Amino acid sequence: MGRMADVLVLVAHPDIARSRVNRALAAQARLLPSADVEVRDLYALYPDYVIDIEAEQAALAAARAVVWLHPVQWYSMPALMKLWMDDVLAFRWAYGPGGRALVGKCLWLVVSTGGVEASYRQQGGAEAPFERFLPPYRQTAQMVGMRFLDPLVFHGAHRAEAHELHAHAHAFALRLQALADEARANGAPAQPDVAADERRVTTDD
After folding, report:
1. N or C: which end of the chain has fewer CB within 10 A?
2. What's the pLDDT tens digit per position in 104-142?
3. Whole-angstrom Cα distance, residue 91 to residue 107?
4. Distance separating alpha carbons of residues 88 and 176, to the nearest angstrom
């Protein structure tokens, strides 16, 4: 068996055929060398919601960095992604006594929102609009010993122009390849370089 991919991309979109952002990003990820990036579409793999825990844990264990790619639904992740977390990030494997399978790996959250950026801004707040919705993700990463990288968010997926989607997908592919290169070179890659104007969250349709 050849070398496993350095970066594991977990796609969780309930209806990716109708998606604009998530479908485009998943397609870009699949264009990268399979030795660098593995893409797993959770809804395609588990339409019955019966998750192969051993297969998912094996994919996680082999990767040096993990990407969660999904639309934001009710300020959180899709149902199958949550079930995946509950089943796969198991006690004594991902956390708890002896649970060190993910320690030192990086976690990069890549999400989309149907609503515009202003929909996520707290009135009078100074923090980034989507920051207050991130604590569950950050705490999960901390619990299992992963390093939470700055998320990539694309807002207003439903109304975005084609050129915006194309630019976003291209930027994602470049940073994904850089993440794979850093993972392979360093074992624990540095954060992807996300420009300030690209730190936008998306709930993809």
Report:
1. N
2. 999 999 999 988 887 777 655 556 678 888 999 999 999
3. 19
4. 23
